[in-house]
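Cross-posted from the bioinformatics board.
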Amino acid sequence: MTSVDTPRIDSERTVRVTVNGVPREATVPVRRVLADALRDDLGLTGTHVGCAHGVCGSCTVLVDGDPVRSCLVLAVQVDGAEVTTVEGLAREDHQGGQVLHPVQEAFRECHALQCGFCTPGFLVTIAAGLEARDRSAEITEEEVDELVGGNLCRCTGYANIKKAVRHAAATMREDAS
Amino acid sequence: MTTKLFGEPVRRREDARLIIGKGRYLDDIGAGALAAAFVRSPHAHARITDVDVEAALDVEGLVAIYTYEDLTGPMAEPLPVLIPHPQLHAPRTGYALANGMVNHVGEPVVMVVATDRYLAEDAAERIVVTYEELPVVVGVDAAREARAVVHEDIPDNVAARHHQETGDVEPTLAASPHTLSFTQYIERSACMPLEGKGVHARWDPDDASLRVHSSTQASTSVRAAIAAKLELSLDRVEVVAPDVGGGFGVKIVHPWPEELLVPMAAIRLGHEVKWAEDRREHFISSAHERQQRQEITVGYDDDGRITALDVHVWHDNGAYTPYGIIVPIVTATQLVGPYALPVYRVVVESVYTNTVIVTPYRGAGRPQGCYAMERTMDRVADALGLDRAEVRRRNLITPDQFPYDHHLTFQDGRPVIYDSGDYPGLLDKLVALVGWDEAAALRADAQARGKLLGVGMALYVEGTGPGPYEGGHVQVLGSGKVLVSTGLTSQGQGHETVFAQIVASELGVSMDDVEVHTGDTRRFGYAVGTFASRAAVMSGNAVALAARGVREKAIRIAAEVLEANPEDLEIDEGLVQVKGTPGASIPLRTVAVLSNPLRYAFDEAAKQATQFAGPGDDSKPPVAPGDAPGLEHRDYYSPIRSTFASGAHAAVVEIDPQTWEIDVVRYAVVHDCGNVVNPMIVEGQVHGGVAQGVGGALYERMAYDADGQLQNASFMDFLMPYASEVPDVVIDHQETPSPLNPLGIKGAGEAGVIPGTAAIASAIEDATGRRIASMPISPTELYDLMRDETAERTAASQQTSLQTGVPA
Ligand code: FES
Ligand code: FES
């Protein structure tokens, strides 16, 4: 039998990740979840922890473009990956300012947030979904349901979040044409 | 008002930071803080015989361990009974850390502080607490039977007996043409904000002062509690509510043990300490609400007019009563809804159980009251073979009966006198909006698709905006910026926007110049808090009054400078000007500079102001008696009593007779909260409330087993609605302004949740013909009910079966 090198839970590893386009490095205990590493080690507190057991989706970030619940992933698992958090959704406008992602604009326009705690998770999930689809096609209700269906919000009753998805999809469609 | 913002769907200003991840919630504060974790009771009822911390001591990063033995002075005393009441004859509260006894799973026993949360939990895990288990009381029925007791010295488990009556019920019932009696239940749910509670404390030894951030709905009261319990002078303590990730009531309770223990540790350790509640902790140690058993007898005539209503409520208050009997009082007094009841008697017995405490959750007793009243209406209609809408209509208070005195005493100790409303108007709108009269066609259509369809409705009146007061402060700076502060807190209701709209409208400035701060005791020390749909009514009116004070002063100063009659002046877009005389004007910011006779010319504003500054009258002091330097005003709004908002909801449900899945296919809301400051925000509140109402009716319950273990203490098992569970909501509005306050507004925060359980129960009953007497109801429970030969059937369903020959 070969012995497997099982690290102690409090042993540390250095993790190199590109976060929102910037290469970052942090030395973290191997048991630290990605959400905590982003928040506590990298100071990116926009990612929120609502349940820490993978159900609410507030902690969602993009790992290599795909939505991932950062409370269920260890920081060491994303070594070498590209991570996008809510802080990375807006683009630089090359004049020192930022251009919001259409879904961010839509959330504001449609009153899709109240307390805002769940919002980062919805924003990154929806942004990724809208980026991945054919922008020139009108969004269907099934697509809308799919994009908002996996996250919990206790404040809004979801109606305005769905509205914001339609609104953002329409904006992206216009921009694409 | 020269600047029209009041009533407009202005986009929210808080969103700018929240959508880019720059909100500042509790756990975003204090990166260098030590972390607290708690050892909580795993038993529902037990005596603590030993606490052994030995094994935790060598955990790396451990900083401190506190047990009850470490608490001194007022901290060692029981937590306060916040709202005592003469009828709360046996109040009980816990301790910040358990003192030898635990009365529910989750009660804090030991606090551990370490360099980070992971390590604090490592240490907490190694602490061994030995318990001697005691018999457990779960649920109102077990509490009533009192075979076991929660508190040794309360043999019947009854904390309070609350009683109100408006006439002689028994003779009236005896003389009534008809009476009927029934018993029904409603289960526990909980607020479940996405952000749990949390506290961060920093002690400044040089200044001997404490700054606490808490995810609270009542920062001023948390401050007072900390000062009292930690024996600090009030001026040495400041409490700030940062961005708060939802509250819905649970964060109005104070002080939570952690709100005292975290500051205590910060002082003792001379280091910042933080605790952020995790989800399991929230389930087992924060508050729940809603469980009641309701025994109802109603008398009525042949037309369905109610002659007398007699209600006995058994209310589960959990292990302790820190928040008094507010919830059952609200049930007792709001139960009457929009109806004129000739005689009403209510008795509430509030009982202890070995479960998490029960304190207000959005609606705060109103959903239960609505459930009692509206299900009574359904029963009367069914017994007489009348339309449910018609029976309601016959009992409504009519618009000419306002102010309508119910001769009851509300939660604030004031009479329940409805200020204004148009309930028949609500009902008419609802019937049209949901298509009540087309129900038969809908049912036939559903039947053709193999589904059972039912419609149900529920009406409510909601006392909103109770006192005693809120305050507002408005100050115009020399830069032209208008600072607004009020003491109550925000948890996502958009107060920064709404109060800015009000102040901008009142003062005549651009909303961009207005900056609003809430829930920060450094800025405003006197406040009550955010609950009972009171923020817009209370602080909205307070900031309006403060803005009016500023306006008056600005006009007085400008009148002198412009040598004009104050009556001829107006403020528009930040300019004080003579009406109809362009050019004769002075910017409000310049008036702000002029308002202070000490004017060092630090900046352009001060330099500019000198051109307006007169030489002054040598015979008078620069600041006249009774005047004050600065363009600012503080004012308070204190209402004589609550306003009363109202509404009517209807639900259409479709049920699959194979799986008994219940689908709310249409949900209609007619809503009246008086004048509306921001319709976009009000609709958002309605949407959120309805989602919680649907959750409470069909999905959410606290599943305690007989040992007092909460079986579903996670989002995996407690079924909070996702988007797929929330129906599309259609909304219609009605506005009957409140005559009680300057802005004519009523509260809107809780309304959406109140009638959900009642309306959906009614719709399920309509669809199935089976009495629904316990809510929430799951498909499994409905399946069992349908198979239960002894289950009570509605008269309507029996009639249908006679006509069609199909067994109901
Ligand atoms: S915090 Fe990760 S899913 Fe809830
Ligand atoms: S906005 Fe508060 S939880 Fe979604």
